Amino acid sequence: MATLQRAIVRDLSPGERAGLRGGEAARRRFDVYGRRPPTHRNACWEGDHKRIPVRVDLEGSAVCPWVTWFIDVASKVIVGVAVTPHQPARDAILAALRTGISRTTPYGPFGGLPGLVRVDRGKDFLSSAVEKALGGFAVPVHDLPAYKPYRKGTVEALNGAVEQMLLVSLRGYTRRARPAQAYRPTPVGDLLSYPDFVKVLLDWVDWWNSEHHPAGVPDGMTPREAWEADSTPVAGVGGAVSIVRVRCPCRGPRRTWRSTACAGLWVRYGRRLMG
Predict the structure, then answer these.
(1) Strand partners, 68
(2) Which of 33, 48, 192, 224 has a CA between 20 and 30 Å from the CA of residue 11?
């Protein structure tokens, strides 16, 4: 047995030994990934959906909201956010993009036109509506291979950070460890209301941009400071961003609406939108 153990230590890498003990997920923790070179603000955004593991009260029903957001890779500024009480689709993506691209009140000061948007292969991110909206600004979309979250590590790190820093402390958090026989769902009346949750999340986004010091930002700056210290010109659009339009399935096939005018859709700084 001792001879076999010495042979395993000699001939197998630490990752292979971890895989034998804990499976493929344990082995992947020893993988080596390339690091992209530093770049400037708005050179690339990364976007993703995240299901919020927090039950909130939406008109008497308990739901788990979703957040769709885009983050600037260079400065780590969260440029655009949309929160929906249901699984998001192209409407949430377009709303988040609008809040990121537009720098006029009530949006900004971050944003503008990115040089590239990096997403996974979700069908809503690759929909024709999103392609046309970004294509109108000549912004390419880079769809990454499936099941490779490390290829868009900035937004994946943001997804993990919001859960560890904020969501675990909220009432209705669904991943809190407790004995199975003692589990009692929080009554709907004791949960955060949907508007209150949205306010809490948007306040956290403000804190992340203005006060937090995320890894990867040079000289220990906040995302806001890194954005302001970057002298790269910001490409923008004149006037209101009005081409971001989708068809609303709940209003019939012949009616179109601006993605920023859907009842129940919430975005960064704009709080509740007209509906």
Answers:
(1) 49, 82
(2) 33
